[in-house]
Design goal:
The chain has 117 residues and is mostly helical. The protein is 73% helix and 0% strand. Helix 1 runs parallel beside helix 2, helix 2 packs across helix 4 and helix 4 packs across helix 5.
Length: 117
């Protein structure tokens, strides 16, 4: 006797089409195209979760460098001095301080760069 899998296939196809909702063209209505689109979207999201971390670090460094240049210091020398003095504030927090709390950022810079320059 032949086993019919209509219910199982339909359920799996509907699950795929639901995941592809909002895609353009045949990618949201055709099972084969939707499956390919979902696979590609998964690859992109996996890659970009890692890329996002790199991009934010770059942004923090750019902001820090700009804030330090206004005070007459270089980013690389500041980071080296901070490591030498065992300052445990990361780039993200330093960047936020530079934007939102310039006074506190100035004190941190003065503390770190007190003996150098």
């Amino acid at each position: 006797m032949r086993i019919t899998r209509g219910v199982t296939s339909r359920r799996r196809h509907n699950k795929l089409l639901k995941a592809a909702k909002g895609y353009r063209g045949r990618r949201n209505s055709t099972v084969k195209m939707a499956k390919q689109a979902i696979m590609k979207a998964g690859q992109n999201s996996y890659r970009d979760r890692r890329r996002k971390k790199r991009e934010f670090r770059r942004l923090w460094i750019i902001r820090l460098n700009a804030a330090l240049r206004e005070r007459g210091f270089m980013y690389s020398r500041f980071i080296r001095a901070a490591e030498d003095k065992k300052v445990a504030i990361d780039r993200k927090i330093l960047s936020e301080l530079a934007i939102n709390e310039p006074g506190a950022f100035g004190k941190v810079v003065d503390t770190v760069m007190s003996s150098t320059k």
